[in-house]
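Question thread 4412

I'm putting together a teaching handout and wanted feedback from people who do this every day. The idea is simple: show students a protein as raw sequence, then show them the structure tokens that encode its fold, then repeat with a second protein so they can compare. Below is the first pair exactly as I plan to print it.
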Amino acid sequence: MPKKTVETIIETGNQYIIQVKANQKLLFNQMKINTSEANFCTDFFEDISQARGRFETRKTFIYKDLHGISSEWKGLKRLIRVERTVITKKKESHETAYYISSIRSDKASLFGNHIRNHWGIENRLHWVKDVSMNEDKSKTVKGMAAENISILRNIVINLFRTNGYDSIKYAIEVCVNNLKELVRITMCKTECYKIT
């Protein structure tokens, strides 16, 4: 994310938690240095989950040491390191991710839960669009067509979920040649929606 965007977030009175990737070379390398010592962390949080034969551990470490990081990252207050270990029957994988945040908190659980919730959105929407709906393979690029098709995909996902389909892949298989079910889904009355 560009530094200008971070500046806009702060100027509008909002907060950020942003993942730092290797393409942000200076910040990424400095974060690896500043978060390398576990004994310098402000707080630590561990979250363990198990579902569908997948065992996942997420460790979140919070750091205050901003030494060596450009002051152009407006509002920066905390550095976060998240270590994920995923074990399935076939393999074990390890990943370390780095984040910066403008939130002045020393509670690792706060950051860990926010980051995990973001991954939930990523998995429930973007992964579905990429895998079940082949969005990444789409060659539509002219004008606003790609954006419009993405909006239509979001509408379809929302209609399926509103009508009780947890698996979008299954919903597509059921509805693709079933006109009655398609009409039922698209004619869903407002009672189907949870009032919040």
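The second pair follows. I'd like the answer to focus on this one:
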Amino acid sequence: MGLYFQLHDHNIRQKEVCEFLQHLLRHLRGHVVVLWDNANIHGGEAVRELCRRVPRLHLERLPPYAPELNPDEGVWKHAKHELANGCPQDLDDLWEELLASLDDLRRSQKRMRGCVHQGELPRFMP
């Protein structure tokens, strides 16, 4: 199990979504299934075109207003817990602490599975 992410200091658009999906496709073999919410940036012509061009990419939308199903909520819960008592000196320090927290989570298969299992998704992995 892996945690793949890109952080931005601005609101992302479809361009960044497509770049991230292409990043995943470069790093993962076989079929790639992405679970995501119904944000407007997750739809649109650019994303549909990418899916048409790359048949091994499968995008599955979560139901609207269903954060309890989204494993991403567990990731951010972990990060917020790690950062809660910190005192970054500036924005660069905050970015550094956030990346350290996400890297810590990425290295722990137990915690990664916890992010998936904390939600109410049907069990799809041991």
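Top answer:
Good format. For the second protein you could add a caption like this: DSSP finds five helices and two strands in the chain. Strands lie at 32-36, 57-61.
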